Amino acid sequence: MNTDKVYKKLFISAKILVFFIYYFSGLDTSINFSDVLYYTTIVSLKSLFITIITSFFISLVFSLQIVKEFLYLDAIKLVGTVFAVSFVRELSPVLTSVVIIGKVCSSFTSELATMVATEQLDALFILGIDPIRYLLFPRIIAMVLGLPMLNLISILTSFLSGSFICFILYDIHPNFFFDSVFYDNLILDLSKSLLKTIIFAFCISIISCVWGITSLVGSKFVGVSTTSSVVICLITVFILNFILSYVLFDNQLSSFQFS
């Protein structure tokens, strides 16, 4: 990656951050909300099926691995708590983000890179339209709105599928499972989980859009930019997840004392 391209990415990222500071301070409200609604639908509704399928089967596998161990230790009352802590704090936010990176962020990058390759951005400049405000901001806002909603659905799906497999294979009644799922810290953990996904959404949407709009001219660079964007987004989520988990949960009291 040459120096000019790095500076261009940094400049566009800085411009996005400045816009959001202006927007949330009430100094600038010029956003096309019909575009925001359109992209929110893409992020949330059109990604709902793959999110549910992913959460369902991951929770089934997770249950298969942990429940028999807790049965062996005669600590069955902790199964729901361990399950909830794992999915609410870590698995659902990360898995949902990974799914969205593969499905939505990649499409954001490829769409914008294609517009660069076909010189559509030049046409916007000629018309006096700021492509960053017109193309990027609605996508970023939609991602920030849509990803937390998908995270909640992922958590709910994992709870239901976990209770199902526990009942079918290990004869653990759903009432017993959910009694231990709803531990005292659950609401606090849910709020922190949503905060995680908001931060994830903001970062991966900026990366995917910036990588698309700074793509080199030429059809072959569409694939290059998309692949690079997905890799950077994944690495960003994994690094941020560790940092946020340490900041949000390291000093929190153990959930087992409330079980």
TrEMBL record:
Protein's UniProt keywords contain Zinc: no
Keywords: Chloroplast, Membrane, Plastid, Transmembrane, Transmembrane helix
GO terms under cellular component: ATP-binding cassette (ABC) transporter complex
Keyword hit for Chloroplast: yes
Gene Ontology MF term list: phospholipid transporter activity
Segments crossing the lipid bilayer: 6-24, 36-64, 140-170, 198-218, 230-249
Classification via InterPro entries: Permease_MalE
Pfam families assigned to the protein according to its UniProt record, in alphabetical order: MlaE (PF02405)
Name the record gives this protein: ABC transporter permease
Provenance organism: Laurenciella marilzae
Name of encoding gene: ycf63
